[in-house]
Amino acid sequence: KWFEKYVCEANRRGLVGGFGDGTFRPANNLTFAEAAVILSKANELNPPKPKSGEPWYKPAVIKLQTEKAIPTTIDFMEKRVSRAETGEMIYRLKTDGLNKPTRARCG
Predict the structure, then answer these.
(1) DSSP secondary-structure letter at 103?
(2) 75-98: b or e for each residue (b if 16 or more CB lie within 10 Å)?
(3) CA 73/CA 2 separation, integer angstroms
(4) CA torsion sign, 55 to 92 to 27 to 21?
(5) Predicted confidence (pLDDT) per residue in 43-83, tens digit
(6) What pLDDT sits at residue 85?
(7) What is the DSSP string of 32-46?
(8) CA distance 14 to 17
(9) How far apart are CA 78 and CA 10, in angstroms?
C-alpha cells in the first residue's frame, strides 16, 4: 500500500502506536481523541502520561485546549474528525490560534 512507509515512519518516530493486535488500520478515520494524541506528539506539545484512572487521551486534549486548537465542531472524544477539522487543528497549532473560539471541555 502507498501509505505503508508513512505509517511505519510515524511509528518509528513514536507518533502512532497502533492497536493491541499489532495493526494500524490506516483506512479507518481517526477519532478526535486519537487525532489529539498524534497532533500533540507531532507538534512537540509534550503531554504528560495519563494519571492512573485517567483516559489515555486526556493530557493531549488538555494541551490542545491550552493552544486553542480544538475546532468548535468537535464536541465529543469519539467524533470522527474530518480532513477539514484536522487541517484546522494543524493550522491553529502553527499560527496564533489564541484569538479563535475553541472547545474547552474534556472527557
Answers:
(1) -
(2) eebebebeeebbebbeebbeeebe
(3) 30
(4) negative
(5) 999 888 999 999 999 999 999 998 889 998 999 999 999 98
(6) 92
(7) HHHHHHHHHHHTT--
(8) 7
(9) 22
Cα(37)–Cα(62) distance, integer angstroms:
10
The pLDDT score that the predictor gives to residue 41 is 92
Q: What is the pTM of this model?
A: 0.80
Nearest to 61 by CA among 4, 74, 99, 20: 74
Residue type, 65: Q
What pLDDT score does 77 carry? 92
CA 77 to centroid of chain Cα atoms: 10
Closest listed residue to residue 87, CA positions, set 71, 104, 63, 67: 71
74 Cβ partners below 8 Å, 6+ apart?
A: 32, 81, 85, 103
pLDDT at 99: 66
Three cell numbers written together for 65: 485546549
Burial class of residue 3 in the structure, from the number of CB atoms within 10 Å of its CB (0-12 exposed, 13-18 middle, 19+ buried) = exposed
